[in-house]
Design a protein that fits this description.
By secondary structure, this protein is mainly alpha-helical. It starts with a helix and ends in a 5-residue tail after the last helix.
Length: about 425
């Protein structure tokens, strides 16, 4: 595989000049945005969902169970990565993308219409778990298939075009946080718990049919269409690409940790800093806007200067700045200070995450790219993302230290430094 060659030029190709490339951007971004909107919304509504579906006499226990349910779905992601990722390598990116968005819509609908614990008892949390498992399975194949689809339409500008995946996640953060802020400020607690929390999930469903239609009518990615497809992508990876899989998974860690840190911040601000839900959600919007607006800029720069400088710089700054920032915020909890912290997190997150998809696509050859990217991404997300909220909540409760959240972030950053260095010096990626 000539990974370095894929990075070395920024000359436009016929694939990039064709409108099909931008249709690929739109179709990939819609599905990714829907996935992340649902994921972020569930986390943003964690306090309300805990009360309605997992009621206990202890609020911390209810919140832990809610985040555990959030995390359980991530066990399905590697399975989805294997099934849908391998499907994309065998049959094509288009077929896999159409399947994943259909499954995602079904999972979202189940959450939107699910009766509460007070209405149907234990069937309510069981239904939420089922919906989250289905979403986890579909999401397992979404990122790898959609990112492979993007980079294979523009092989010489992988950084720029794959960064739109990250920009769409920024849009999801903005929409989910905006939904949380509007609902918490405009509705009473009774209205929010009765019906208000369901509205954003129904809104998310509106995105699905458009995405399904666009994906159904796409052409296959040119690079995949010209390649000799393998019938055994998973076996090929396990036979000769295990080191690439390990490095790929490690390179995803910081992206995962930083996103779920942003996702967790509204809960942290309310529970640990005593701030209002409206203020905490509003501050989160800033991080999402930074991610939305600056991801294509970072992606473009990574095509020129390489992926690893941005990823290494971000990881090192997370190690150096996280503890001082949270220490300062805990001593001076205010909306303006929370805004500053979320702004710094948003910049560092974008700096790393917008460079990462292109590096991940460079790690695997086209024949195993869908499976390899899906597995790498979802192994890291399962371990470091799905249980982030529960792990941080548990760490704070056990240590009785608000700053325990920083231990999780710094640990993830150090692992990502090692993975990025391995990609640079062992695989010779820049």
């Amino acid at each position: 595989m000539s990974s370095i060659a894929s990075n070395s030029s920024t000359v436009a190709t016929p694939f990039e000049q064709h409108p099909q490339t931008w249709r690929a951007v739109i179709s990939s971004s819609i599905g990714n945005a829907l996935e992340w909107f649902d994921v972020l919304l569930y986390s943003a509504m964690a306090v309300t969902i805990a009360k309605l579906f997992f009621p206990t006499s202890n609020q911390t226990v209810s919140l832990l169970i809610t985040f555990a349910t959030f995390g359980v779905s991530f066990f399905m992601r590697p399975l989805g990565a294997v099934v849908i990722g391998a499907y994309s390598d065998r049959v094509g990116r288009k077929a896999a993308l159409t399947l994943s968005i259909l499954l995602m819509m079904i999972g979202t609908l189940l959450i939107a219409i699910m009766p509460t614990y007070a209405q149907i008892g234990l069937w309510a949390p069981a239904g939420i778990v089922l919906a989250r498992l289905l979403q986890g399975f579909s999401a397992g194949g979404e990122f790898g298939s959609s990112t492979a689809f993007l980079v294979e339409h523009a092989p010489h500008r992988r950084g720029f075009f794959s960064s739109w995946q990250v920009a769409s996640q920024g849009l999801s953060i903005v929409l989910a946080a905006l939904a949380g802020a509007l609902l918490s400020s405009q509705l009473s607690t009774e209205q929010l718990e009765s019906w208000g929390w369901r509205l954003p999930f129904f809104f998310g469903l509106l995105i699905g049919p458009a995405g399904y239609y666009i994906r159904k009518n796409l052409e296959e990615s040119p690079e995949f269409a010209q390649a000799d497809a393998t019938r055994t992508p998973l076996r090929d990876i396990m036979a000769s690409q295990k080191m690439r899989l390990l490095i790929g998974s490690g390179s995803v860690i910081m992206a995962t940790v930083s996103v779920y840190l942003v996702v967790y911040m509204p809960t942290y601000a309310v529970k640990q800093l005593g701030m209002t839900s409206t203020a905490s959600f509003s501050a989160t919007i800033l991080a999402g806007l930074i991610m939305l607006l600056f991801s294509p800029v970072v992606g473009q720069l990574s095509d020129k200067y390489g992926r690893t400088p941005f990823m290494l710089g971000s990881s090192v700054l997370f190690v150096l700045l996280t503890y001082p920032l949270f220490s300062w915020l805990s001593l001076n909890p205010s909306f303006f200070n929370l805004l500053l912290v979320q702004g710094v997190i948003g910049l560092l997150m974008t700096m790393y995450f917008a460079s990462m998809p292109a590096l991940l696509s460079d790690i695997f050859p086209v024949q195993t790219r869908g499976t390899g990217m899906s597995l790498s991404y979802n192994i890291a997300v399962m371990i470091f993302g799905g249980f982030a909220g529960m792990t941080i909540t548990w760490l704070i409760a056990v240590t009785e230290n608000k700053l325990a959240v920083t231990f999780y972030v710094i640990g993830g950053a150090l692992l990502s430094v090692l993975a990025t260095l391995a990609a640079r010096y062992k695989l010779r990626l820049r």
